[in-house]
Design a protein that fits this description.
The chain is α/β, with parallel strands linked by helices and about 675 residues long. The protein folds into three domains: about 270 residues, Rossmann fold; about 260 residues, Class I glutamine amidotransferase (GATase) domain (Rossmann fold, 3-Layer(aba) Sandwich), CATH 3.40.50; about 70 residues, Immunoglobulins (Immunoglobulin-like), CATH 2.60.40. It is built from 14 helices and 39 strands. The strands form six sheets. Strands 7, 8, 9, 10, 13, 14, 17, 25, 26, 29, 30 and 31 form a twelve-stranded mixed beta sheet that branches. A nine-stranded mixed beta sheet has the order 1-32-28-27-18-22-21-19-20, sandwiched between helices. Strands 4-3-5-6-2-11-12-15-16 form a nine-stranded mixed beta sheet. Strand 38 and strand 39 form a beta hairpin.
Amino acid sequence: MLLKHIHEINGKSIHFGFFYGHLWAQGSLLLVGGGAEIAGGWSDEPYAWAVQHTPNKKIAIISTDAGSDPDWLPDYFISLGALEVKNYVFADRASAGADGLLDQLTAYDMLFFKGGDQWLYYQYFKGTAVEEAMMQVFAKGGLVGGTSAGMAILGEYVYTAQKASLLTWEGLENIQSENLTLTNDFAPMLKGFITDTHFLERGRLPRLATMLAYYHIENGLQVNGVACDDQTALAIDKTNLAKAFGTGGTYIYRLAAAEKVMNQWSGTISARHLAYGMSIDLNTLALVDGPSVSSPGYQAENGNYELYLSGNNAIENDAAIVKQLSTLQGPVLIVTGQARLTAAKLMSALSDNGKSDVSIMSAVQENNSEDSWQWRNKIRLAKQLVFIENDFETLLDFMKNGPTGQLLYAHLRRDQITNAFFGEDSKLAGSRYVINNLEAPALAYQGGLTYAPGLGLLQNSIIIPGAFDPGADDYYENNTLSGLFALGDGGLSNAIYINKESWGHFHAQDGENQLSAMGKYALVLIENRSHHFQLFDQKTGANPRNNASYDSLVVQVLGHGSSISLGVPVPTNSPEYELESDPNDSVITGIGEPLNSTFISPTVTDSHFNLDIPKSGLLRVYNAIGTPVHTQHYQSGKHVLDLERPGMYLVAFMDDEASKLLNFQKIIKK
């Protein structure tokens, strides 16, 4: 499947617009993403707004568990201007249908659902006086609100979490996961929407996208999404004007297209990300008060080379990409750090798949001297460069401070070269990389993410490997925000999220540079199509979160085999290389050409090479990556050399003790 960009779908511009008519009822809504309310803190404004939009200032607080301090929230609402507040705790479905309950609840003009378990809410309240009271209070102009699980039940389409919470990676692996339990038969407070909570805190951006895609694929419905972070609220008045409050973000998603790809899915979603004080018209999804900092505009990726970006460096999980690399022609140079164990495993795996011309180079200064000419020749001959388990600072220093590293840096960018990055090393292929996203959970929440310049092979992108791996949920917030924040703070165009056992493939096809997804989990690409953005300024502690608001993002989910265009390849017309010789060796002319001159390729006759040799000595044959494949003594006169395998070889002519290189010849067997 080849996805199109949002602005190209159906050959015309796609934008936010009127899509569902007016929302269903006349009341107001308060959607709260979760997190503890704080008197004198983030929650004062949205909760006071709710009280002000409650005609009789009477509030019923509904839950299935009284909690440890049942009086706190009623007292808090009273402090914000409520006249009467009462807790209603329902231990089962029977209590939610008690006689006289409907009359009691409809005497209040605000029903507020606490956090808890949304499956219990759905079980207990579906078809009872509580559900009926929600609809009646809303219809007469009252307010219905909820936090966390209480917000989760306020969309027309409700994620019930009947079996277990749908984890982000599950939706990227299988769009028909048994944990994807959605229904549309509960009180439809927010018509046309699914709601989600604790959004970036729990890395749920791909989860909400999966829910929207599921409804479209299974039912043909164009469902939309609204989500809030913790300590964040969206207040929606009777005219459907919605305003964001709190320290986190509010997210409005509109599905443009989706289809099933094997057990995964591919699709396109347009998004607006709002911060504190911003507002949006939910009738049209037009921003009323949005971000104000000009964005640099979308920039294409025009490199004329091939990239493989793997989500992890566990070779046993990368069998498919190893097999793919083994099919490519030409020598391979693996670049790694001091510890070469993983690189050795990769070399062995490539060998098991029939790839024999592989070398491993440690990016250390001892290989970066003028005497390291053999490594530089290996770089020049390499058609594939593979990076795995490098220390980033050491590698980048290696590329800056020495002839071998500088050549490596330039060789990465040669026309038609193939570069592969495994695991964390995939970060390096982008314009910049996040340094500390795996250092400690909640760093992004505390505004503590740091970045450094990458290699810039994707010069307008940031890459997050292992983004939503199973078991790594403590870091989902850091990982998600590592990309989202960089789009604004770094002026980037793309954030690419890759899971383990999966990879992205950047390559030229049909005159375009395409990004393709392969593997167990769908790839997530967020395109920055914004005209304006704004970094968050509301503090959750000492600093604001590492997040930004955007007036236009596009979320592309690429299932296995799906592709999207990122630009067009622009050739650099890389010059041909000349190989170096050992500066300590003397060169005698008269046999072929001198070492530092143009090679002469002798005539090929079947597998025989006829060499006219005027001197005696030792003859040694090297393959294209410098590995000796044949050694013998020779005499002057005609010499026939048998080579079985096609390829390029270097024939070195040495003295009898192999202590001095006299000359060498390049020969090519076709």
